[in-house]
Amino acid sequence: MRNRNYMILEIPSRSQNEAFARVVAAAFASQLDPTIEEIADIKTAVSEAVTNSIIHGYENSEGIIVMKCSLSENEIVIEVSDEGKGIEDVKQARQPLYTSKPELERSGMGFTVMETFMDEVEVYSDTNKGTTVIMRKKFTSLTGEQGEESNEGE
Amino acid sequence: MELKAKVSDGVLICTVAGELDHHTAEEFKTFVDYNLQNNPVKHLVLDLSRLSFMDSSGIGAVIGRYKRVSSAGGRVVVVNESKQVSRVFKVSGIYEIISSCGSIRQALNKLQKRHDTFLKE
User: I need a surface site. Which of B18, B76, B105, B119 has the fewest CB within 10 A?
Assistant: First the structure.
């Protein structure tokens, strides 16, 4: 029986905190015994979201990034938010290869990576108010184990 | 992040260990560019066997180096990337322009073969 749990992390928008945020999310998610691949997926998606807040949300200024994670039976929900400049056109921002900062050699793949590695990605943004990205992932390893056990019982 | 460079027959071999994200990307770019500029090399091999993590910032950094190398007629080969790194590469489509090999020796052979074929033609 898995209990609900949650955590909140507040970090300044410094690039050295990208790795820290990844590890925190991974450590928290490990409570549900995910596979190595699922952990890697979560780390990668969190890295993209936090990096976006640093580079795009706060650009050259420093602000606070809040990461909230919550666990249910077999799912993690991760919310990364900032109070930065916001995204004018979210649809455009989510297009693969689109970047508002080509001069920084950005690949424009941040949202695409999040969408590939997580099951669902929602983006809420208000110009000059900030951006919130909510990502969900179901741990199929848990669903698989339960399925196998019930088959053996039959 | 740990970066090492070696030159072998016109090929710059860069070993990238640790994690390649937005925070470490500048260091990676500066290191590779410096070595591309200051060595008699045409191709770039990136030994990623000890790269434990990469996100799309790494993709941007690698593509930037690819553009530089290919504009001078060279190729880029990555070696022994991990599963996580490979998945990120796949999402970006970078394998369309960059080859992957299981070892540095294989990478050098691959680059040499193309060179020989070119010379024969």
Answer: B119
Residues of B in contact with A57 (CB under 8 A): none
Which pLDDT band, with edges at 50, 70 and 90, does B114 fall under? low
* Complex-level ipTM: 0.90
Task: Establish whether A37 is a catalytic residue.
Answer: no
Q: How many cross-chain Cβ pairs, A to B, lie less than 8 Å apart?
A: 68
Parse chain A into domains and list their residue ranges.
5-148
CATH code of the domain occupying A5-148: 3.30.565.10
Q: What is the pLDDT of residue A153?
A: 40
Contact A109 B59 (CB under 8 A): yes
User: Chain A: nearest CA to B40, how far in angstroms?
Assistant: 25
Residue B97 has pLDDT above 80, yes or no: yes
Q: Chain A within 8 Å of B91 (Cβ-Cβ)?
A: yes
User: pLDDT (tens digit, 9 = 90+) per residue, B32-87?
Assistant: 999 999 999 999 999 999 999 999 999 999 999 999 999 999 999 999 999 999 99
DSSP per-residue string spanning chain A: -PPPEEEEEEEES-TTHHHHHHHHHHHHHGGG---HHHHHHHHHHHHHHHHHIIIIISTTS--EEEEEEEE-SSEEEEEEEE-SS--S-HHHHTSTT--S-GGGT--S-HHHHHHHHSSEEEEEEETTTEEEEEEEEE-HHHHHHHHHHHHHH-
Question: Minimal Cα–Cα distance from B114 to chain A, Å?
Answer: 28
